[in-house]
Specification:
Structural class of chain B: mainly beta
CATH class of chain B: Mainly Beta
Shape of chain A: globular
Largest sheet of chain A: 5 strands, antiparallel
Number of helices of chain A: 5
Number of strands of chain A: 5
Helix content of chain B: under 10%
Helix content of chain A: 25-40%
Distance between the termini of chain A: 57 Å
Oligomer: heterodimer
CATH architecture of chain B: Beta Barrel
Order of helices and strands of chain B: HEEEEEHEEEEEEEHEHEEE
CATH superfamily of chain B: Porin
Strand order of the largest sheet of chain A: 1-2-3-4-5
Radius of gyration of chain A: 17 Å
Radius of gyration of chain B: 22 Å
Structural class of chain A: alpha+beta
Number of strands of chain B: 16
Number of helices of chain B: 4
Number of domains of chain A: 1
Strand content of chain B: over 45%
Chain lengths: 178, 355
Amino acid sequence: MNKLIIISLIVFNSMTPSDSDLKSDVESLIRNNFEFETRLEFINYKIPGNIKQEIEKKSGQKFFKDFLYMWKVYRGDDYIATGILDNVYGKSQPITFLVLINRYNGVMMCEIVKYREPYGGQISNKKWLDQFNGKDNSSSYKIGDEISTISGATISVNSITKGIRKLTILISLIGNDL
Amino acid sequence: MNKYLLFMLITLFLSNITLAQNEDFYESKVTLSGYGELHFNQETNSKGFVSKSLDFHRFVLFLGYNWTEKWSFKSEVELEHNFVQNGQGELELEQAYVNYHHADWFGFQAGVILPSIGLLNEYHEPPLFFGVERPDYHNKIIPTTWFGNGIAFYGNYLDFDYKLTVMEGLNNEKFSESNGIRGGRRKGFRADAKNPLYNLRVDYNGFPGLKIGGSLTYNKASGDTSTNKIDIFEIHAKYNYNNFYALFEYGQINYEKGNFRKSLGFYFDLGYDLSGLLKTRTEIIPFFRYTDYNTAASTLLRGDADKKNHYKYWVFGISVKPIQEVVFKADFGIRTRELGNEETKLFNLGVGYMF
């Protein structure tokens, strides 16, 4: 019996993501997106007050904090993309997500890094997130048309969709000032 | 040795549960949300008698608190029909549970919870379904909102989403030919824990916009003097993409004994969001619904007794959503009872919200 409990705990524990590795997990996610070697430069980016206000008004969603985790992605000396880690609220818990945006302001990849709600976990589905690839600040993000809904995850779908659009607007405004 | 190892592992496991948390991306918080709906209902029966009512059907507040990113509390209190007096109106604690979210593939909740039966029971906010009133099917076959005391395990893995619920059983002495199992819900009120209800639901979400799945439920429903084993089989599918809406659900309840041995029904919705064609930001979604249900489909008397609770109901309607969280609704339909071919015309208007 004890053996069974021990094995269960080892399996259970090993399948639990550890939050202390959040940064290194995100860096792995970014690196895995490229077939070539990349160099990452981490920035704890403080969002300027006027820009924050403008984006929140345009996107209809507030930022979780007044700073974001950002990574400038380099191939050799060339700055080729920006990774942004942000939070949006689901029904009651924050959803931590990563968006990788190229130098033409287009979304290259989205990933749900941490989902904490009992309902709506299907938004981590890769096929659903791939719908955002290629979108930029001027794209349509209409849910039910351009972006498919997920039954049972309405609030999370709305939040993440707004959150991704919000970050494309941010990059379109500050892209060269990082 | 094993005991020492076990102690170390439990300590490691608990520390992993309680300590690891990135404060830049998490903060404890009280959450307040809710939903509500006002209805105007007009019914004209086969003899031409007209009834009209104006009813703030549901006012619901959701209160939650997150201690950590894994441990949280969620609750939902509902007031039905404005106030409670002399058996009219209802004040209900529909949800109140501690939630532990271990990882995407596993979590559990314990307290007052919702069994995962059908598309509507867990997701019943007015902007999420067509029609002013909840579909008849979700009143007569799968009664919503169905809640009770118990524990549930949930998760999602690959493209599958699953939930196993063990909760208070039903009271078989409140089953009826006209309402199936609806009256048998104990709603957490000093519920009998002798014969728990078991419910397993699995959904597949691998295609964008589509959810398809089903659930199985079993309960040896107890009463003061008798028991009646029931099982519920239910399948469902919902699709929304490129402005197109489609939904289907079929449910069947089998009873071990009693005057009727089966309740069954289905309904489907088809809708299309015209906002793209009309170049408007407001969603304008006309829809059609067809429902067929019989709460006493297989009676011992047979003949007319099988037809007495068999209804067919078609509805045309529209949902107008200026924003995702607010909806104005209108619908018109005719419900026909098989016995006597009795027709009732129904016209409804409503406004609903969620936040």
